TrEMBL record, chain A:
Family: Belongs to the SPCS1 family.
An annotated GO cellular component: signal peptidase complex
Organism: Frankliniella occidentalis (Western flower thrips)
Compartments reported by the entry: Endoplasmic reticulum membrane
Name of the molecule in the record: Signal peptidase complex subunit 1
GO biological process: protein targeting to ER; signal peptide processing
UniProt function note: Component of the signal peptidase complex (SPC) which catalyzes the cleavage of N-terminal signal sequences from nascent proteins as they are translocated into the lumen of the endoplasmic reticulum. Dispensable for SPC enzymatic activity.
Designated gene of the protein: LOC113218393
Region (Disordered): 74-99
Pfam families per UniProt: SPC12
Keywords: Endoplasmic reticulum, Membrane, Transmembrane, Transmembrane helix
Membrane topology recorded in Swiss-Prot or TrEMBL: Multi-pass membrane protein
Membrane-spanning ranges: 21-40, 46-69
TrEMBL record, chain B:
This protein's GO CC annotations: signal peptidase complex
Protein's name according to its UniProt entry: Signal peptidase complex subunit 3
UniProt xrefs under InterPro entries: SPC3
Lineage of the species this protein comes from: Eukaryota, Metazoa, Ecdysozoa, Arthropoda, Hexapoda
Signal peptide, first to last residue: none
PANTHER family documented for this protein: MICROSOMAL SIGNAL PEPTIDASE 23 KD SUBUNIT SPC22/23, SIGNAL PEPTIDASE COMPLEX SUBUNIT 3
Length: 99, 179
């Protein structure tokens, strides 16, 4: 089970942005090419099929969380050793009350 | 876009938006085209009868009986935004009781890819040429016109009239024989 739970399934923030940008570029490009091709052969269904091909390609490239979208992980700070939970939490409200 | 479902949903929505834009471009590319073209119509047999029109009343009305020739070439009207043409032949005339009468006599559907060269001889009307009274006998100026309704993928459904029509007159006497 550890093997399966260790498969990474996330994208980092930059990766999410890149995947969305890439998908929009692919679909737009296929749409424009399909429009030109469909106008050239005078068959609008060809345009729709080319757009559908672009949708499939973009789905394969940008929907699964490929490793290329995981290259810029966030640098989380190390967790600070918390002294005591009650002391850290109740300090600020107490100071407000005194003022 | 942190999940597979979120990304799939966004992509499907964007694809459909692009498809709507492409369809609009297709509409724009054909909306200003001129779909008129010449056609020739000639009548062969023209008679008029006076018989009861039971679908309307029991009174006797004029029933025209017309056969005609039709010749035109509509091949160049088809493009990527025309799925089919609906052709129809109308008879138009004026009577004392009505300023404008219009009767559809015949129609035909031509799908894209079918033969659009029309050369028909002596065709019978598909629909009855009833007048709503006695206006047909001896009428001097009845005009036959071919028109078509364009059925597109996206956009308007214009009715276009052919260039050219044919005017004829009905005989001054009713026919009693069978036709």
């Amino acid at each position: 089970m550890d093997f399966f739970s260790n498969i990474p399934t996330h994208m980092d923030y930059k990766g999410q942005g890149r995947s969305e940008k890439l998908s929009r570029m692919i679909i737009t490009l296929f749409g424009v090419v399909g429009l030109v091709w469909g106008y050239y052969i005078q068959q609008f269904s060809a345009t729709v099929y080319v757009l559908g091909a672009g949708f499939l390609l973009a789905s394969i490239l940008t929907i699964p969380p490929w490793p290329m979208y995981r290259r810029k992980p966030l640098n989380w700070q190390k967790p600070r050793p918390s002294p005591r939970e009650d002391g850290a939490e109740t300090q600020s409200p107490k100071s407000k009350k005194k003022k | 876009m942190h999940s597979v479902f979120g990304r799939g949903n966004a992509m499907a929505a964007y694809t459909l938006s692009v498809l709507a834009g492409l369809t609009f471009c297709c509409f724009l590319s054909t909306v200003f085209l001129d779909y008129r073209t010449p056609a020739t119509i000639n009548t062969r047999q023209v008679v008029v009868k006076s018989i009861p029109d039971y679908s309307a009343s029991r009174e006797k009305n004029d029933l025209g009986y017309v056969t005609f020739d039709l010749k035109t070439d509509l091949t160049h009207l088809f493009n990527w935004n025309v799925k089919q043409l609906f052709l129809y032949v109308t008879a138009e005339y004026q009577t004392p009781s009505n300023e404008f009468n219009q009767v559809v006599l015949w129609d035909k559907i031509i799908l894209r890819g079918e033969n659009a060269v029309i050369d028909l001889k002596n065709i019978h009307a598909k629909y009855y040429f009833w007048d709503d009274g006695n206006g047909l006998r001896g009428h001097k100026n009845v005009t036959l016109t071919l028109s078509w309704n364009i059925i597109p993928n996206a956009g308007l459904l214009p009715n276009v009239g052919a260039i050219g029509s044919h005017s004829f007159s009905f005989p001054p006497e009713y026919t009693t024989s069978r036709v």
